[in-house]
Each structure stands twice: as C-alpha cells, then as structure tokens.
Design a protein that fits this description.
heterodimer, A: about 170 residues, alpha+beta, 2 domains, 4 strands, B: about 600 residues, alpha/beta, Alpha-Beta Plaits, Fe-only Hydrogenase (Larger Subunit), Chain L, domain 3, five-stranded mixed beta sheet, four-stranded parallel beta sheet, 19 strands, about 35% helix, about 15% strand
Chain lengths: ~170, ~600
C-alpha cells in the first residue's frame, strides 16, 4: 500500500515539475488538478500541498478552486465510479429504480464508496445521451438502456474480473 | 454648433487636452483624465456612487454590483468601478430605474444578512447599514433562505462570522495583495460561497497571522477581533487583584476617533484618567518598556555588529510578523531579535521586578494591555511567553474595545480631567513614542545605538529618510568606523520583498525593521474604524495619526531611550546592564518553526 502511494506521489510530482519547466504554471492549475484527481482518485491534501509548495500557490486559493468545481472531489473514490443519470429522460425511463438496485447490490448510499474501495455511486443530471435512456457511466464507459437485471450482470462481471486479475497476480507472485 | 455648446458647458478645464476625454454626466459635460474609471471620474466631479467591494488600495473586483451606472448605448448597466471612461460617454447616475436596480441588488444582499444591527459589534459604523440607508431601502421585498454557519471563535485574536459576510472580497484581496499571506479565499459556489481558510480549518490552525487588517477593510462585522471586554469588566471588579493597565503608543493617537474627534488628537492623559475611572489601580505606559526594548535591542544590535554574528538583525515587536516568519521563513528565525515586544516586556517587569519590589504575589497582578493590535492577543497566549505556565499579559484589549468599554461605563473621555501615568513605569522618552509608526523602532534604536557606539550625542536625531509611508525605506548611517545599512518595511507583502533581497544579498542590510500593518501600529487591526471622509489604509489618515506621535516626540526633553531616568534606575536596581543574565531571562524570548494547516512541512 505504501508503495502504491509513493508511486502515485512520484507520478504527480513528475507532472508538476514538467508544468513548472514550461512556465505560466499559474494558468495550468486546472489541468494539474485534473491530473491529481486522475492519479489519486480525488484531490488529496497531499496533492494540494505539493502544488502549493512546488508552484508557490497559496493553499487557500487552491482550496477555493477545488471546492468551486463539482468535478473535483475531496473524498477518496472507488476504482469504479458509477454515475447514474437522473436527468429527465432517464428519470422518466425509470433510472430511480436503477439507482435503488445499485444501492441494494453494493450496499452503499449515494456518494459513498464500498469498503473494498471498488465502487462509488454518484448521481449525474444528464449525461447527454438521452436516446439511450436510462443510462449510467462506469468511469468513462456508457451503459445504455439499463434494466435491473442488466445492472446485476454488469456489477457481477466487474467483480469477477477483479477477482480474476487479483488471483492471477497472486499466482504470478507465488 | 453642437460642439460649441458642449465646450461652453465644460466645467473642469485642463490645459492639455491629449490625456482628457469629455464625458457627459447627467446632461452636463466634463473633461476627465482618460485613464480613469467611471467611478474615479465621478468621484472627482462630485458624484459619490454607492460601493461595497471597491477599495482604493485594493485591486478591482466588481463583485457587489452596487456601483452600476447607466451608459447610453450599453445594453446593460455598467459597473463604474471596472469600466473606463471614453470620449463622448453619456452617463446617468440617478435615474428612477437605476435607483430601483441598485436597491434590489442591495436588498438581495441584505436578505442573506442577519438582521441584528442593534446588537452588532459594528456599533452603527457599518458600511452596509449606511449604504442601505443611503440607497433608500424602506422595506424588504425579498424573503429567502438564509445561510447558517458557525462563528469561528478558535483564534485568540480574530473572530469570523460568515453569516454577516456579503462576499465583497475585500479581506481576500487585502490578505493576498497587501499582506501577501493568503490565509483566506473564496470557496464553494453559488449560495454556498464563503470566504474561508484552506481546508476550511479553524482560523487558529490556519496560516492567518492575526494582523487584523481584514477587520479594518470589512464593510460589515463578518471579521472582528475576539472580544475580551466581558472578561475584563469582570476582572475589574475583582478586589483581590491589583489591576494594572498599560497603554501602547498608537492608542493615544487614534482613540479620539472612536469618540467622534477628527484624526490627529493626542488623548494620552484623558485615556489614563478614563482607565482609572474604569477601575484600574495603576496605569503605566508601554512606552516605558519600549525604551527598555530599545536598550536591549540596541545592545543586541551592537553586539551582533561587533561580533559579526547573524546579520541583518530584524525587529521583533510585531507579533503578526513573528508568526509569519515562523510559518513561512523559519530560516530567518536566527535573524530576529530575541527581545520580547514592549507589551510583554512591561508585563514581565510587572510580574517580576515590580511584584518583588512591592512584595506582592505575581499572581495577584492583573496585567492588562491596551493595544492597537489584534495580534497582541495572539502574542499574549504564546507558550514561549509564559512564566511557570502563567501568562504574562492576562488580557489584551484593542483600542476599539477599550473605547467601547469607556463608553459603556458611561465615561465621557473628552470631558475627563487629564491625568498623568503612574510613577515607576510612566516616564518615557520621545524615542519610545514613535514606536507606533513605521520607521519608529529603527529611528529609536539608531538614536541609542549610534550614541552608545560612537560615544557622542547626535544633534539631528530625526531620521527623515525613515519616515513616511513608502513601502520599503532605506538609509545608510555612518557610525564611527562602521557604515550601517538599514531598511524599514511595513505591510507583509513588503516584508516578502525584503526577505527576497536578503536571500540574494545577505550582507546588504545590517538592521531591518518590520511592522506587519501598513503604516505601523497606528494602523493596527484594533484601531478605530476609519470614519467620515477616510477609508481604511488612507495615507492621509495615517499621516494624521503619525503626526500625533511625532509631535509628542518633539515636545519631550528626553528623546533617547538610554537617557530615560526610570530606565537607568531599573538597570541599576534590577537588571544590572543590558543583555545581562537576568535581562536575558526576563526580557528575551525564543521562536520556533510552525506548521499550521496549509503550510507544508517541507518548508
């Protein structure tokens, strides 16, 4: 675990140093924050402090920007972020049922993360593909015309694949 | 024909027409400088447009939208603080529609503001309240959701009440532009927008240096000092304690403003009398301990310069500055003079020398400091300044607080019979008086250090190059065989600059004076709010307050700290000599690195 964190930090610092060399890094704050969220899964205090120290930006300012944009999250999120669309079209097509089913399967509430750190459920208001309603996104992939049955399959599938990679890793290590 | 008519109407006429444009305000033509904003131009012409987020010393934000004017040809109202004038601009400042729009904007601000003017700390001196009245709000048209935040009472010096905040952003800009600390910024968005510290941490664990300048520019009471008035009133009726007050130099120069006087009145003796009436047994002068500080600091400087130890030496009187260095520039801690501030020196002397001399238990002394400063409240609770776990200065109140207490006790400060300070620690030199204004500590230190080093008296003791309100002031003084380069800075952003210079050229300066507040203590975070024609940080206001101190200095016969007979006596009776073992124990302190939230440990 320690190792993974160090790797993340190294990767982020490398990115920061690249930005610094280019100059005008004050205007690169947004892309830096995007990168931080990509690496850490959220905007960690560590990331904020690294930005502050390396680019000489006040923490209060970074904090202001992070809290301003809804995209940035200050809580750690799961490996798979499930964004369920609750926009009008999806809602009419029963996305509330989808959301409830997800909550039931994963046994968590909205904006929470499963204890194993795999899944986070979020609500989004229109993902821009109303023709496919009801939709949800898992990370960058869109799942269309959902039913409660499909949901169970998708989640089971991810869980299965995760288990498989985990055991194969263990096999390699052993 | 049209042009001729316009020309006839020109009221303000300037010789050069190149830099000027003609604007039409309420159907009358004026010539104004083309680089001005509409607001500045209108101010000169004689129209005062209501404003909240605008502050002449800060950058322009255009957040409050109150300063809108109607410009012909523009689809919307224009905020006069951001828009520049241009040739032929036709401006209307007071149409019925515009008044209504302005009123609505203000009403929406008020809708989210607590209606507690009768109990509010601003005590009627509130910009929001005044503007609400001047814009002509008679009733409230809107009734919506109200914010509900907790008041941040964590800091010993600064209280933040986000409920009263109107998000004008003056404090945010001041903290970053004038003080360079960046302790606060806007966070969240829309209805949830708040001014907060990084990580929304309590002020006490943030990088805030408690200078209190944000309080001076806040148009409401969203930021204020932490009040110790209730505590002090309670202690004042405690008959078991000997209640001793000390008054800082800058207090006497500004307290009159809180009682409706024009700036520039010296109310030293009236304040002493009023404090006696409030119930203090003894009133001493912090200027006495300022003389003591100069003795210690002057000798420390001479010692450093002769032994070639850590230079430049930097003054230590400003507690906000100390906190700033401990947080952001710990590598400069060895440069800072180890002398306590005059306030703490006075309290130390009271609880050691004075208690011993009078044969009383130090714990029976209530040491109260009346300061122009909010950071002194922070300083008083520092662990490094405690003797056996007990605070040296028990209570610190600001000029504003003591003015309120005097009023609240029904004492008319202006009619009180003037009284002198009490003996022993009541006499001070002119050098100590000017401690309250930027450059004063340096000037006082040089007056003493020069004479001690060279061994002859200087006739012209007024160092004019160290006076005035330039951000960084430099001077070179020939002291016998040594040439001493000194610098004086005020406002932390200037301190940033000087530290940068020192990093590049470590031997450029020998002695640096830093005061955290622009203008020095006379403009401290606890001074009366600027009122009347003055705005906070106005140089004219500062000049008037400073002139009080310079006048007192000039009127004194003793103008050098080492000539103060009471100082000579305390060294003879108690300390022996400056920098003696005893004085090190009682008059000196130490500083440590600090890592509040928002300062990374790698620094």
């Amino acid at each position: 675990m320690e190792n993974i964190n160090n790797n993340k930090k190294e990767e982020f610092i490398k990115f920061l140093e690249e930005k610094r060399e280019k100059g005008y890094y004050n205007s690169a704050l947004m892309s830096i924050l995007h990168k931080a969220q990509e690496i850490y899964g959220y905007i960690s205090p560590e990331a904020i402090e690294e930005i502050s120290v390396r680019l000489g930006m006040p923490t209060a300012k970074i904090w202001g920007i992070v809290t301003f944009y809804h995209y940035f999250t200050l809580k750690p999120r799961g490996k798979y972020v499930i964004s369920v669309c609750l926009g009008t079209a999806c809602y009419v097509k029963g996305s509330k049922r989808i959301l409830n089913k997800l909550k039931e399967i994963l046994n968590i509430e909205l904006n929470q993360t499963t204890p194993d750190g795999l899944f986070t459920i979020e609500a989004k208001y229109c993902l821009g593909c109303c023709g496919l309603a009801p939709v949800m996104m898992i990370n960058n992939k869109v799942y269309e015309k959902l039913t409660t049955k499909k949901i169970t399959e998708i989640i089971e599938n991810i869980k299965f694949n995760e288990e498989k990679t985990k055991t194969s890793k263990e096999l390699v290590l052993n | 024909m049209e042009n001729k008519k316009n020309l006839n109407n020109i009221v303000v006429d300037f010789r050069s027409t190149e830099d000027f444009v003609t604007i039409n305000v309420n159907n009358k033509d004026y010539k104004v400088n083309k680089n001005k904003t509409i607001m500045q131009a209108l101010d000169e012409i004689g129209y005062h447009i209501p404003r909240l987020c605008y502050h002449p010393k800060l950058s322009i934000e255009g957040a409050c939208r109150l300063c809108i004017v109607e410009v012909e040809g523009m689809p919307n109202y224009v905020t006069s603080c951001t828009a520049k004038v241009s040739e032929g601009m036709k401006i209307k400042t007071n149409t019925a529609e515009l008044r209504r729009a302005r009123r609505d904007i203000l009403e929406l601000l008020l809708d989210n503001h607590p209606v507690d003017c009768n109990t509010c700390e601003r005590d009627g001196n509130c910009e929001l309240q005044k503007i609400a009245r001047s814009v002509g709000i008679k009733m409230r048209h809107f009734e919506g959701e109200k914010r509900n935040y907790n008041v941040d009472l964590s800091s010993p010096a600064i209280t933040r009440d986000p409920n009263k905040c109107i998000l004008c952003g003056r404090c945010v800009r001041l903290c970053s532009e004038i003080q360079g600390v960046n302790a606060i910024d806007f966070a969240n968005r829309g209805f949830d927008s708040t001014v907060m510290t990084a990580y929304n941490s309590p002020i006490n664990s943030s990088v805030c240096i408690t200078c209190g300048q944000c309080i001076n520019v806040c148009p409401t009471a969203a930021l204020s000092e932490k009040y110790y008035t209730v505590e002090l009133f309670k202690e004042l009726s405690n008959y078991k304690k000997i209640k001793i007050a000390q008054i800082a130099p800058a207090v006497r120069a500004a307290i009159g403003e809180a009682f409706g006087l024009e700036p520039g009145h010296n109310l030293e003796k009236q304040t002493v009398a009023a404090l006696k009436k409030l119930g203090f047994d003894l009133v001493f002068d912090t200027q006495f301990s300022a003389d003591l500080t100069i003795m210690e600091e002057g000798y420390e400087f001479l010692e450093r310069i002769t032994n070639n130890s850590v230079l430049p030496m930097i003054t230590s009187c400003s507690p906000a500055w100390i906190k700033f260095v401990e947080q952001f520039y710990p590598e400069f801690i060895p440069n800072i003079s180890t002398c306590k501030s005059p306030m703490s020196m006075m309290s130390s002397v009271l609880k050691t020398y004075y208690a011993k001399k009078r044969g009383i238990n130090p714990q029976d002394i209530l040491s109260v400091a009346i300061m122009p400063c909010t950071a002194k409240k922070y300083e008083a609770q520092r662990d490094e300044l405690k003797i056996d776990g007990n605070r040296l200065t028990d209570i610190v109140v600001t000029t504003r607080e003591i003015a309120w207490m005097i009023k609240s006790a029904g004492i008319d400060l202006l009619k009180t019979e003037p009284e002198e300070f009490d003996n022993m620690f009541g006499f001070s030199s002119g050098a100590a008086t000017i401690f309250g204004v930027t450059g004063g500590v340096m000037e006082a230190a040089l007056r003493t250090a020069y004479e001690l080093y060279v061994g002859e008296t200087i006739i012209d003791i007024e160092f004019n190059e160290l006076r005035g309100f330039k951000g960084i002031k430099e001077a070179t003084i020939k002291m016998g065989d040594k040439t001493v380069n000194v610098a004086v800075v005020h406002g932390i952003s200037n301190a940033h600059k000087i530290l940068k210079i020192v990093k590049e050229e470590p031997s450029r300066y020998h002695f640096i004076e830093v005061m955290s507040c622009p203008g020095g203590c006379i403009n401290g975070g606890g001074q009366p709010y600027a009122s009347g024609e003055y705005t906070a940080l106005d140089e004219e206001l500062l000049r008037k307050r400073a002139s009080v101190l310079y006048k007192i200095d000039r009127a004194k016969t003793v103008r050098r700290s080492h000539e103060n007979p009471e100082i000579q006596r305390i060294y003879k009776e108690f300390f022996g000599r400056p920098l003696s073992h005893k004085s090190h124990e009682i008059l000196h302190t130490s500083y440590f690195k600090k890592y509040p939230q928002g300062v990374y440990k790698k620094y």
